[in-house]
Design goal:
Helices cover about 35% and strands about 25% of the residues. It is α/β, with parallel strands linked by helices.
């Protein structure tokens, strides 16, 4: 069982077809297929069922997947330790969040590391004259863990690896820290990657006191989280819509309206289900940008994050309807059994600042 075979196996699982995995790995489909078959022969079990809709994991494949992230992660850690390189933290984020929230997190993370290195540290990580670790994290609201993380170690760097998709990444290097940011369009994929240790943490949108209270199912893994911010929502319509003249709007007023949405798994569709209910007709438009553009053209209402419509509200191409809309939570999720990862504590502080 070779590391390159495990990487290929993981890519096939993630992309669901040999062809797409081959594109991501920059290999030929025949090479990907041969590596998978060689891995199956070495283990003496079938890892995939070949179906017309793609590759589906067998029971043995599911068991191997639970090990793959850890094995590849340990190999990467060993390589970095041997070569004297710092370990990269792997942060996933929904694409919208990656564009609007992650840059500030990375800037604060780099600043925090510089500040920490400028402070003389004694007494197991406590700066002189203090009574608590300078890196202590407040108790985290969580489904499985509420203890502070251990004191962070100084051997994590920040390298930004980002792009328009999980396979197209632009490397931006910094000498003082390293975080590999992987934008994604699917919250379920991000959570699965954290659960299987292909990511160390993920930023996503949720609501309520437990992971998944927005309306999605969390994977069966020891996941914990901390809410690091809020994302206000706005129900918007084009100027001239009848409801723009109302002093107050309640969900019942929206019956029979057209509500622009993306897909049922979208955080904003789920938020609409919680806040508005089933009254409006759902009209699938597409991404946040498409929903905003359609709403500006009067094709329907849209429930979107404030940051996505702030310019439209300022220039008058959209009007905010006076409906009470609870904020969504910006939630950082990680595995509770991997809290000793170098740099994770600093990432929590940077995300929470």
């Amino acid at each position: 069982m070779e590391l390159r075979q495990l990487r290929t196996f993981e890519a096939v699982v993630r992309h669901r077809t040999v062809t797409d995995a081959a594109v991501a790995l920059e290999l030929s489909p025949s090479s990907v297929s041969e590596q998978v078959r060689t891995l199956e022969r070495s283990l003496g079990v079938a890892l995939f069922e070949r179906t017309p809709k793609g590759m589906r994991l067998t029971g043995a494949g599911e068991r191997l997947l639970s090990w793959t992230g850890r094995l590849l992660d340990q190999a990467e850690q060993a390589r970095r330790e041997v070569t004297g390189q710092a370990r990269a933290l792997r942060l996933g984020a929904l694409e919208t969040i990656a564009a609007t929230h992650v840059p500030g997190v990375l800037t604060r993370l780099a600043a925090r590391r510089r500040d920490r290195e400028a402070i003389p540290v004694t007494n197991h990580g406590r700066p002189p004259g203090t009574h608590r670790p300078d890196t202590e994290v407040p108790a985290t609201p969580s489904t499985s863990h509420n203890e502070p993380l251990p004191v962070s170690r100084p051997d994590a760097e920040v390298r930004v690896t980002a792009g328009t998709s999980r396979d197209e990444r632009l490397l931006v290097s910094r000498p003082d820290a390293e975080v590999q940011v992987t934008p994604g369009t699917s919250r379920d994929d991000l959570l699965a990657a954290v659960a299987t240790e292909r990511l160390d943490a993920a930023l996503l949108l949720d609501a309520g006191d437990a992971l998944g209270d927005l309306g999605f199912a969390a994977p069966p893994a020891p996941l914990t989280f901390v809410d690091v911010g809020t994302v206000p929502l706005a129900l918007v319509a084009a100027p001239g819509h009848l409801l723009t003249a109302s002093a107050h709007v309640v969900p019942g007023d929206l019956a029979g309206e057209r509500l622009l949405v993306n897909v049922p798994a979208c955080s904003f569709w789920m938020a609409a289900d919680r806040i508005i209910g089933p009254g409006p007709e759902r009209v699938r438009a597409g991404s946040v940008a498409v929903m905003r553009a359609w709403a500006e053209q009067g094709l329907g209402l849209a429930l979107l994050p404030e940051f996505a419509v702030s310019d439209s509200l300022k220039n008058g191409t959209l009007i905010r309807l006076p409906l009470t809309t609870p904020d969504l939570s910006l939630r950082l999720v990680w595995r509770s059994d991997r809290e000793d990862l170098p740099g994770l504590r600093d990432l929590l502080y940077a995300a929470s600042a």
